[in-house]
Specification:
This protein is an alpha+beta fold. It has one domain. 33% of the residues lie in helices and 17% in strands. β3 and β4 form a beta hairpin. It is globular, with a radius of gyration of 25 Å. About 5% of the residues have low confidence.
Length: 215
Amino acid sequence: MKPHLSQRRNAAMTLFEVGIVIAVILVLAVLFLSRTAKSYSPETTCVNNLKQVGLSFKMWAGDNDDLMPMGVVVTNGGAMELVRTGNVLSAFLVMSNELGTPRVLLCPADTAHLTANDFDGLTSSNLSYFVSVDMTNDMNPQMILTGDSDLLLGGKKLPPGLAQLRSSDPVNWDIRHLKFEQIGLADGSVQTVTSGGFRSQLMLTGFATNRFAIP
């Protein structure tokens, strides 16, 4: 009796086929890692932080007659008088419940400041973002509410405290995000802008001079 010979092809993969599978897996891994790295980039995290900060301001205003901490006196639970002296910390402290965590107040690209673990220990050394002194409500959607404090005026770093800026002033970003930085507007949006874009936004606010509390 003759042995029966199978007509089926050998199911084992050739070296060429194995190489193709490995190459496809490597390409997919590179694409996944690139997408993951982009989603956790300092710029993306900074944008998300400012969106959370902007939402917190709106939530706080919703419980305080549509006024933000900069429009409510200290005796009523706000931070008006303190912010007007350049004390940006006070605006964030009164919003601790809305913010949830102080970690959203630090940009991951900001190497000059440190992350705070809780609001009890929060100081200006844990803040990356400025706050508008004149932003008492969200009626003007073009108002700059907050943004990266990495600002230069005439080539010099803006010191902590009260800064008064006009669109004609030689204001530029420093090196935190290279040529682009983030600002949060009254309408809740976050814009990535150049130095020129920031100066243009100063003009759109309608104020001859914009006042910011700088950490």
